[in-house]
Structure formats: structure tokens, C-alpha cells
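seq as requested:
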Amino acid sequence: MARIWFKTKNIVISIIVLLAIIGISGFIFYKFKDNFLDIKTPNQKTVFTIEDKKISDSTKPFDIEIVYPYVASLDNFNQLVKDIVDKQLNDFKTFSLENDTAVKETDPVDYEKYPRSYYLSIGYEKGQIDDNIASVVLIVETFTGGAHGAHYPISVNYDVKNKKEIKLADLFLGQDNYLQKISDYCIANLTIQMKQRVEQQYIDYQWIKEGAGPKEENYSIFLIDKDSIKFYFPEYQVAAYAVGSFTVTMPR
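C-alpha cells:
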């Protein structure tokens, strides 16, 4: 009988000790849970949250609508983007007001009848955003006076680890003929696109070869994605204004 009581006593003690350990462990986890949750495994990547920043102004004679990206924890990248947006906005207002003043002084009667309006629109396309690369292209549409407005892209490609802007050459280190390969691919693709927009006899093939030839300046605007690089050809680069702008997506 004593032996049974002794065994029962040991079991009860063991259960009490186990419950105490569980309770202490639970308290420690609750107390320091934030520290535990912040620990990353070697293969775990940072999740970057993208927020749209907006600027809107309809004060006459302006019509301004701007949306640009803000990526949490990428301060240098965000500053690059903001600097570009600020410059576009300041230049737009300066040129618009200069033209508006000139029109008003030249023909005040006509100006009163038909007051001018000037617009600036900026949106963006998102490419790769991760621990290595942050890539976006700002799409600008503006009218500051004149025969017609302007449409053009501005790319921002940022090396997250080394904290510097990425040039196209950085993606093709050790490849001396990368521009020729890109050019050959883009010219072939642009020719197909051109035939879909313009009748055969009106296509200026020399214009395409000049605007998409193997020169760095022809490929300075690009969007990096995980599986491709998208090249942008603004109005006038490979064809007349009326034909429009072009993009070519090339597999990486």
C-alpha cells in the first residue's frame, strides 16, 4: 500500500513540475513574443509594402493628378522617386505660368474668352521590388502650352543592397555585346509593332534603326522584372509623334 502511495505521489509531483514548466514558458513567450517573431530564417525575405503617394491640384489654370510609389524601409529609393516627381511638378508650373502670361499679354481679349488650362498627370508601372532590386517607371503626361501635350517615361532602378542606381550595363557585366543583342531583339519587335500601326509604305525603317540602335542612350529607360526587362521608346524616338510611343519586353 505504501509503495502504491509513493508511486502516486511521484506522478502528482511530475505533473505539477510539468505544469510549472509550461506556465513559465508561456509567460516568457508572452513577455518577449515580439522578439521571437522578429527572428528571420536565412531564407526568409523582407516583405516590402508599397504605398501610393498622391498629389492633386485643380487650382486654375492647373489640373494636376500625381500618383507615385513609396516603399516602406527603402528611404534612398523613395527619395530618388520624390526628387523626380518634385522636379516634374516644379518645371510644369514654371513653364505653364510663363506660357500663360505670354498668351495673356499677346491677346488679352481672346484670353478672357478662352482661358487656358494646363495639365500634369503622373502614374507609375511597378517592376521587381525585393531585397535586391527596386524598379519602377513613372509615366508622365503633360501640357504646358503649344500644339500638343507630351508623354514620356522616367525609370528608377535601384540596387537595394549596394544603395545605388542601376545602369543597364550593371545587368550585363562581362558581356561586351549585350547592346547589340538587345538592339537586334528590339528592332525586330518594333518592326512587327510598327506594321500593326502604320501601312507598309509609310514605315521609316531607318528611323527605327537609329532610335533602337546599339547605343546606351537608346536603352536608358527600362523596367526590371524577375523574368524580363521592359524597354521604353518615347514619342519621336523610333517614329513620328502621331504613331505614338512603344515598349518592348525582352526575356532576361
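Residues 75-106 form the longest helix (32 residues).
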